Amino acid sequence: xxxxxxxxxITRRIHERAREVLEAAGVEVWTNPEPRPLTREELGRxxxxxxxxxxxxxxxxxxxxLEQASRLRVVANYAVGYDxxxxxxxxxxxxxxxxxxxxxxxxxxxxxxxxxxxAARHVAAGDRFVREKRFHGWDPLLFLGHEVAGxxxxxxxxxRIGTAMAKRAVGFEMKILYTKxxxxxxxxxxxxxxxxxxxxxxxxxxxxxxxxxxxxxxxxLIDRERLRLMKPSAIxxxxxxxPVVDETALAEALAEGRLAAAGLDVxxxxxxxxxxxxxxxxxxxxPHIGSATYEARSAMAELAALNILDYFEGxxxxxxINPEYVKFxxxxx
Length: 333
Ligand code: GLV
Ligand code: GLV
Known about the structure:
The protein has 13 helices and 12 strands. The chain is an alpha/beta fold.
């Protein structure tokens, strides 16, 4: 079997599918049994003792750690976003990095829609209201919200997930604006979406949904000045990465009524949340669960395992982030 003699570490209990796939190929699998992240010291031992690792987006796989890697050749990130990985260092060391694109696209787009509706229609505040026994009968002015039909959705970053978000907006009869780093997208144009600059998108959208990956260029892409461009009736949704939005500036804008509402699944300094957000009733807060469906997590686990087996079998992994690693690889595939 292709995995004979190989050892893989999984840094946290994830969907069991990863272990199943790896063990079926004869790989020895170790999983962190504790419900907590590994310490730096423990990660340091993994890079010496294992051939591959499946890690989480909350673990920083940085230069210091990668440079210690006497045995580790593959890092499979259990996420599509990989701002936690030092790609340049891994490439230079011939270490393959992989992520889990596609399999979580629907799950994340669906959660973005859940947040959009929750923020637009006071779903979370309404639930709290009923639980607190404050519902005393139908009230003509209770929890008035914003309708989505006929409104404009601005998709910031029309990659896979942004495109899936937009696709669903067609059914809700919305106008769609989008930005995309690599230029206009035929798929988005097929939904009748219009490619615009970020500032135009912010000025004209009623709902702004963030889907751009976190890179040095997108950190605080939505900063204090850009938040000022948005309509006071606008709602912002973030299921991408927290640092893309200046969270302090966002809390200020919401508190001052310069934005109507927000739906957030990600935060600038996770797991910390800007304390002012807790005090605002027009904010819906979720604990980074964009890909948290049975379907997506099982498929992510399988894809992470298959990427590792690809490497063990002498191929460039199927969803490799840094295929240029091959030039520096000791095994010389
Ligand atoms: C989740 O945030 C991911 O990047 O998969
Ligand atoms: C970004 O993570 C995307 O796949 O759109």
